[in-house]
Amino acid sequence: MLKVTIKGEVYSFDNDSYPLPEAIELEEKLGIPFAEWERSLYLGSAKAHAGLAWLTLKRNGRDVKLADILSGAWPEDGGLNLGDISARFEGEPDPTGAPSAEPGPSTSEPSPKSSASSPGSGSTSPSPTSTSSSAT
User: Fold this and answer.
1) Contact, 5 vs 56, CB < 8 A?
2) What SS3 state is found at 2?
3) Does residue 6 contact residue 84 with C-beta atoms inside 8 Å?
4) Which residues lie closer than 8 Å to 87 by C-beta, 6 or more apart?
5) pLDDT category, 127, cuts 50, 70, 90?
6) Are 121 and 115 in contact (CB under 8 A)?
7) Does the N-terminal peptide bond of residue 75 adopt cis geometry, omega within 30 degrees of 0?
8) Domain boundaries, given as residue ranges, for the chain
9) pTM
10) Contact at 8 Å (CB) between 17 and 9?
């Protein structure tokens, strides 16, 4: 689950579920394949962020046209700036600079000097950022 902030207002966004009609509508309105939209979000594309803002507002019951976001007609106070749209995973630190707890003493122990892997060390598990590819 993501927390998407648009012009200071925070919305919930289920980034694990994209109904097919919604994905097709996004593709048609942005003129790019859905997978390209997802990639473009991570690359910082303004068009992709406009699509995220539109989907987020739509899923949260706001009737805003994507064309109005893209043209700057919404919101009426002069449109969105790229910095007006941000997303973070639930549980991640607030990027707005909200105060955090004071740092305390470290509780981590130094790593052992042995280079051998132990059972359950995860040395054969894929990393959380690994991706798989398939022929399409």
Assistant:
1) no
2) strand
3) yes
4) 2, 3, 4, 5, 13, 41, 52
5) very low
6) no
7) yes
8) 2-89
9) 0.66
10) no
